[in-house]
Design goal:
alpha/beta, N-(1-d-carboxylethyl)-l-norvaline Dehydrogenase, domain 2, about 20% strand
Length: about 325
């Protein structure tokens, strides 16, 4: 691949803004494709608040993809609920040597990007980081920050390592993996329980474990559950572990082996996050659509395809689908 001169960030929420700002800080030509935060970022830049280092970045802001021009590296950090806009938002940025790297949650986004732009152009990865967008143009970094990347269509190549070095130059831990699909299943083992139960937990532990769902207006619903809330409740801890085991078993059915010790590692890493609200909780509280398909329903479909029993995942999906339909009623002003 040629020299990386311009980096475009498509999807400038907490994740895209954080990593884009860090790349800008070390001198890369970074363009943010923005929507609601455009005026704020244009006027004030992006403020990154972190115990490691707080700073203001001034990437080039753009409202329309045609303003961005051709980018050498396109970082896709959209919510998966916006995947139907891939062609509209990304196609104007793609040149002969452009690389499209998705850092989105869940399963299937890289498949769709490969169908549109070709498998050899696409890279895939995920981030293990605690971030919140606390105001327009303001990102709070709470913990972690590691990125894992790999090639969509095969083992790492020279460009894989070159792009990893770009992240490392910005003091971002970036690991290259042989099998990026395994990395996706590993991230699901965190996302599914902590994003999912954080929302589903509003029905209460007993309500979640019961065989029926009751969302009558008089039913009292609880607040969403932070990572700390989930970890300090023995019942929820068992559900978390059970979900992780179901996902590990499903991955194994697809010849993706994840060690049992990985479950203990997820508990250990989560224990230092404090009362963290994962992104799905924040979306739900704002009355926004949750990333149900990529994070929850697609893993369930893949389990069903190979007849892997996933009763906890099925229950979680049933509760989340029901709550997603009621989110406006639950959080109406």
């Amino acid at each position: 691949m040629g020299k990386i001169n311009r980096i475009a960030v498509v999807g400038c929420g907490a994740l895209g803004s954080y990593y884009g700002a860090k790349l800008w800080k070390v001198g890369h030509d970074v363009v943010f494709l923005l929507r609601s935060d455009y005026q704020v970022v244009r006027s004030n830049g992006v403020l990154i608040e972190s115990s490691e280092e707080s700073f203001v970045a001034h990437p080039k802001p753009a409202k329309d993809p045609h303003e961005v021009g051709i980018a050498d590296l396109i970082l896709v950090a959209l919510k998966t609920t916006a995947n139907h806009r891939f062609r509209e938002l990304i196609m104007p940025l793609v040149g002969p040597n452009s690389v499209v790297l998705t850092l989105q949650n869940g399963l299937g986004s890289d498949d769709e990007l490969a169908r549109i732009f070709g498998p050899n152009r696409v890279m895939s990865g995920h981030c293990f980081v605690c971030l919140n967008r606390i105001a327009p143009g303001v990102i709070k970094h709470l913990a972690h920050g590691r990125i894992v990347i790999g090639e969509y269509s095969g083992p790492p190549t020279t460009r894989t390592w070159e792009i990893a070095e770009i992240f490392r130059s910005a003091s971002i831990q970036c690991d290259v993996v042989e099998n990026v699909q395994r990395a996706h299943w590993e991230k699901l083992m965190w996302n599914v329980p902590f994003n999912g139960l954080g929302v589903a937990g509003i029905v209460g532990y007993e309500g979640f474990m019961s065989k029926t769902l009751d969302f009558a207006p008089e039913v009292v619903l609880h607040p969403v559950l932070t990572t700390e809330d989930l970890l300090k409740h023995a019942g929820w801890r068992e559900v978390i572990k059970g979900l992780m085991e179901e996902l590990r078993t499903t991955a194994a059915a697809y010849d993706i082996q994840i060690s049992e010790g990985f479950i203990d590692l997820m508990f250990e890493l989560t224990s230092v996050m404090g009362p963290y609200k994962a992104s799905t909780l924040l979306d739900f509280e704002k009355g926004l659509p949750m990333e149900l398909d990529a994070i929850f329903l697609e893993p369930l479909r893949r389990a069903a395809t190979l007849q892997v029993s996933t009763p906890l995942l099925q229950r979680l999906c049933d509760v989340l689908v029901a709550l997603d339909g009621l989110r406006e009623r639950i959080y109406q002003k």
